[in-house]
Design goal:
The protein is α/β, with parallel strands linked by helices. The chain has nine helices and ten strands. The strands form three sheets. It has a six-stranded mixed sheet, with helices on both faces. Strands 3-4 form a two-stranded parallel sheet. It has a two-stranded antiparallel ribbon with strand order 8-9. The protein starts with a strand and ends with a strand.
């Protein structure tokens, strides 16, 4: 069976422990999706020189943030890794040379969402890093090469935020007008299957404000690259909060 694809806007790490509309949507997603044999997660929070894949059997829970309550800092997500999947990832692409990595674990871009989707931590998880020096089309094409893993029971999940500008963030529930406009434009392009416009994102409305740095946007391109022609999408958490953070996610249907 071909597994769906998922992109998640992960937002505030507190979503891992708070009961809110976002965490409830992730829990519902975990119940709705076919159960994967393993998960390949591309998180905004692991950038490297070149592309790496975690290959440890027991990845640690990384608390890659500060200033949050002790409850969050003490949280553990003891999902197993999968050296076998890591090897498949390394062997699946000719577009990039992927190196194995045993120093990284699961960062909050992965575990803060997965602890809601799969709270028993009983699905193996492997993370793929973002090559910090590669252009957007590189990430899209790498996603395309990883697509066959879907037919091996692997859930490919991108975790970032389509609009993400912490430099202008405000402690409010609503989004700024420009952020809402950019988020809506991206959603229309995703629905229309216009991937070229999303890869060349600089032409999107308010792109410089919405995507001041690429790391939270790039996981989206892996998911788009792994899509097949004609696949539909279903959105969830389609809202901008904190002024400048889009929580929008989607799954393929």
């Amino acid at each position: 069976m071909k597994m769906p694809l998922v992109f998640v806007g992960h937002g505030n790490p507190m979503n891992a422990i708070e009961d809110n509309e976002f965490s409830r949507a992730w829990a519902g997603l975990g119940r709705e999706l076919p159960r994967p044999r393993a998960i390949l997660c591309i998180s905004a929070h692991w950038e490297t020189d070149g592309t790496c894949v975690t290959s440890t059997q027991l990845p640690e829970t990384i608390h890659d943030f500060s200033g949050f309550p002790a409850e969050l800092n003490h949280m553990q997500y003891p999902a197993p890794g999968s050296p076998a999947l890591a090897r498949k990832v390394m062997d699946s692409t000719r577009y990039a040379r992927i190196r194995h990595d045993r120093s990284w674990g699961l960062d909050h871009g992965a575990w803060s969402v997965l602890c809601r989707m799969y709270p028993r931590a009983d699905v193996p998880v492997v993370q793929l890093s973002l090559d910090a020096g590669a252009p957007p089309y590189f990430h899209y094409e790498l996603g395309r090469e990883l697509a066959p893993l879907r037919r091996q029971g692997v859930l490919i999940m991108g975790s970032g935020n389509m609009v993400h500008n912490l430099g202008v963030m405000a402690w409010q529930d609503e989004g700024f007008e420009w952020a809402v406009e950019c988020d809506a434009a991206m959603a229309r392009l995703i629905e229309a299957g216009d991937h070229d416009a999303l890869v060349e994102y600089e032409e999107l409305p308010h792109a410089r404000l919405a995507i001041p740095t690429e790391e939270h946007y790039l996981p989206l391109l892996y998911v788009l690259g792994a899509m097949e022609p004609g696949e539909g999408v279903s959105f969830f958490n389609g809202r901008v909060t904190l002024g400048s953070v889009s929580m929008r996610g989607f799954r393929t249907t």
